[in-house]
Amino acid sequence: MLNMPSEPSIIILISGGNAGIGYETVQRLSRSQPSSPDHHHHHHHHILMGTRDMAKGEAALKALGSPANVMPLQLDITQDESITQAYETIAATYGRLDVLINNAGTAGHDLGVQTATGELPRGQLTTRQVYEHVYGVNVISTAVLTDRMVPLLEKSALPKIIFISSILGSITTLQDGARLVPLPWYSSSKAAVNHLSVFYSRKFPRWKINACCPGLNATGLNSYEKTEETDPKNGAINVCRLVMEEEDGSSGTFSNRFHTLAW
């Protein structure tokens, strides 16, 4: 059973929360204090760390120092039963969801795609398989999870959805001569994620719904070296800013930690 938060809390669900940018986001949110609309209560972030594999979720929780406001929750966004189970657990325990962070994603690294070059493992993987897998996770499963959580988000005083996207999904930036990254299955899936973000922001005009580029970070998504610039900790900065925004916060935007991005 999930812990009930003792104080008024902001209930946050993050998919793929046990690794990479998801993990850094959980860590940052677990240590930051949301501002309280009425100053009588201290609000706390109560974070449901979606994880496909509960053993990995428990290990991630331990690595975080087992904060009381983080709970691993079994969630494989590619499986409808898993989404429904997560929905029912959240509904029964908290009766609402305040923030959904659509973080789970893939560039095909998990299939053996060389994400630096876009090369597929010879003879083992077809282009069709890569596109179906990447779109299945990044676009279809993200949309299904989002739709399923709508009734719980509707019960929040200030519902928020954050779509973790990428500047690689920016058609304008590509058109304007950005370096060509040989991962069209990934880049185009993020253009679709951006579309979903705007779609939902129009569908729910009262809500705060934004697309967030975490920047280029060394995570399981790719094979980059970890440096000061690519530290996944940086990837959490903009997500957390969006989570902390209040009633006057942005909606329908696409940004990274430095500025607004072109669609």
A few lines on this structure:
The chain is α/β, with parallel strands linked by helices.
Structure explained in plain terms:
By secondary structure, the protein is an alpha/beta fold. The protein is built from eight helices and seven strands. It has helices spanning 20-31, 54-63, 80-93, 127-153, 171-175, 184-203, 232-235, 237-244; strands at 9-14, 44-51, 70-74, 99-102, 160-164, 208-212, 254-255. Strands 3-2-1-4-5-6-7 form a seven-stranded parallel β-sheet, sandwiched between helices. Helix 3 (80-93) runs parallel beside helix 4 (127-153) and helix 4 (127-153) runs parallel beside helix 6 (184-203). The radius of gyration is 18 Å and the shape is globular.
Characterize the largest beta sheet: strand count, sense, and whether it forms a barrel.
Answer: 7 strands, parallel
Strand order of the largest sheet: 3-2-1-4-5-6-7
Number of strands: 7
Residues in helix, %: 25-40%
Low-confidence runs? none
Give me the number of helical elements. Answer: 8
Question: pLDDT average, as an integer?
Answer: 91
Order of helices and strands: EHEHEHEHEHHEHHE
Strand content: 5-15%
Molecular shape: globular
